[in-house]
Amino acid sequence: MSLNVFNMKIRNALWLLGSVLMISACDKTAALSPDERAAKVAEGFAVAYFNYDFERAAKYCDEGSLKWLKFAASQLTQEDIDKLNGKDEAQVSVEDFVRSEEGDYAIVEVSDFLRLGALNNKNAVVDCERFRIPLSRFLDKDGEEQWQVRMACLPQSERQSRD
């Protein structure tokens, strides 16, 4: 492992730990409905996450989600970083916000993002894919409903199985 990659991983891990203190990054714009605020949090998270800006993505997450961001950051190599630096930013749009008994979530469509190869070590730019971003709500110190991303795993594609 090169020294640059090691230093980057250490820096990301330290920053993510420090971000626990900054969890209240949800936008407090009173003019937005609760559903619009949830969508805004999901979009902000997805833009950061799918552009591999884990420091910014952490600002939208609850404390339990930080371990997943740390894991994702630990998997990046210098070669991955070089590829990311050479491509345009991924684009994100929120397609839907769903409230359900199983949990609230947003469906986001992500375009032009670099999927890092897990099994075959092949990276690929993906034209367009949909992801479910789980959200949880809480009341801030002023009693206003706010939203955070609550990850139980890394974001998974909503693609249908070929089975």
How would you characterize this protein structure?
It is a single chain. By secondary structure, the protein is of the alpha+beta class. The protein is built from five helices and four strands; from the N terminus they run αααααββββ. It has helices at 3-18, 34-50, 54-58, 66-74, 78-85; strands at 91-98, 104-115, 124-139, 145-149. The protein has a four-stranded antiparallel beta sheet, with helices on one face. A hairpin with an 8-residue loop joins strand 2 and strand 3 (124-139). Helix 1 (3-18) packs antiparallel against helix 4. The protein is globular and about 45 Å long. Mean pLDDT is 82; it is low at 17-29.
What is the N-to-C order of secondary-structure elements (H for helix, E for strand)? HHHHHEEEE
The whole-number mean of residue pLDDT values reads: 82
Relative strand content: 25-35%
Oligomer: single chain
CA(first)-CA(last) distance: 39 Å
- As residue ranges, the low-confidence spans are 17-29
Give a quick set of tags describing it.
163 residues, alpha+beta, 5 helices
